[in-house]
Amino acid sequence: MKSSVIIFPGSNCDxxxxxxxxxxxxxxxxxxxxxxxxxxxxxxxxxGGFSYGDYLRSGAIAGKSSIINEVIKAANSxxxxxxxxxxxxxxxxxxxxxxxxxxNKNLKFINKDVYIKVMNTASRFTSKYQxxxxxxxxxxxxxxxxxxxxxxxxxxxKENLIAFKYxxxxxxxxxxxxxNGALDNIAGIFNLKxxxxxxxxxxxxxxxxxxxxxxxVNLFSSLIN
Amino acid sequence: MKFSVTxxxxxxxxxxxxxxxxxxxxxxxxxxxxxxxxxxFFEVEVNELDQRKAEIKIKEMCEKLLVNLIIEDYKINKx
Lengths: 225, 79
Description:
The structure holds 2 protein chains of 2 kinds. Chain A is of the alpha/beta class. Chain A has helices at about 15-25, 65-75, 85-95, 150-160, 215-225; strands at about 1-5, 25-30, 45, 80-85, 100, 110-120, 135-140, 145, 160-165, 185-190, 195-200.
């Protein structure tokens, strides 16, 4: 399976995701944002970081870059797109995913391992997980407070488009287990066709037991099948 | 022709930065303070002499990049 990782000035999780993808047997290519064409890919990853220094709004400038037009075209023709952290913020700025990521409710940059619950396993990204499986995954962000309008919130529920929710170690979803104030504890969402996933937690940091854990592995093994 | 663009968070969107500024002002003794909302300000200059046409362009700039319409409102004024 072929993957492409887009690099913007200020991306800083691009090498981590490349290591994870290669470990999972993807044939990966790194694509600089100034490129105007994308190689044929089954999966495009927009990695975490601080593209363009988070100027204007996080993800706003990257969301209008030349390579993004190609990503949008690929997404509309069904290519799998994964946006992690800043990648999620960029996807919302392009309009490929609805809603936005506001500043964390406590105004602090949060870098810690949190628990998330798998809310929907019927997708190309999550099929190898169990329903309601609890994962321990690292988050590292300043703007992870997901927000969307009422209409889209209803659509997320009705169409089962919430991929992950923040929870505690035993799986309880409450304000106490919500690290950043995200609406309905949302940590990751799909688009309507479920070929796009945006998530704040970093699965690429969770692919090696000797470094952290391997709770992120199944996201990549879901994709490879 | 020069315009100011003021971007503020919509009424029902939480503004934690504004809240902190509000609390700090209260702590400084501004008892009469009712509320603070924080926003952004842009000065935009365009090569256009027709004000109506210029405003249409600025509006387009707002909706394409300067403003996130899901959470923000904006006002354009000639300066």
